[in-house]
Amino acid sequence: MKYVSASDILPEQLLQEIQKYVQGRTIYIPSREDGRKKWGQLSGQRDYLRKRNLEIRQSFRKGIAVEQLSQSYCLAVETIRKIVYQKK
């Protein structure tokens, strides 16, 4: 995480108000909830896993065994079971 000087980005009046509480120490200001992205949205991992799991469920419905899916996708048998039996 790159640090930014508050004096570079905050209005002087706000900076003085914050200095009353936190003078010379480092603080973390979290992102607003409505501005946060969910895990994997930026990297595309979330979509990749959703598509992969859909393929696994479709293959299972076509009759491919859990053990075979496990080998094909390099996942544990228990992981495949969680994917194919999850309720949606």
Helix/strand-derived category reads mainly alpha
Work out the helix count. 5
End-to-end Cα distance, whole Å, is 37 Å
Strand content: under 5%
Radius of gyration: 24 Å
Helix-strand sequence: HHHHH
**Average of the residue pLDDT scores:** 89
The global form is rod-shaped
**Low-confidence blocks of residues:** none
Care to count the β-strands? 0
Percent in helix:
40-55%
Biggest beta-sheet profile = none
Give structural notes.
There is one protein chain. By secondary structure, the protein is mostly helical. The chain has helices spanning 6-9, 12-19, 45-61, 66-73, 77-85. The chain is rod-shaped. The two termini are 37 Å apart.
What would a concise description of this structure say?
With 88 residues, the protein is mostly helical.
Topology, please?
Blueprint lengths: L5 H4 L2 H8 L25 H17 L4 H8 L3 H9 L3
Helix pairs in contact: 3-5, 4-5
Protein name: Mor transcription activator domain-containing protein
Features:
88 residues, mainly alpha, Mor transcription activator domain-containing protein, YraL-like, rod-shaped, 52% helix
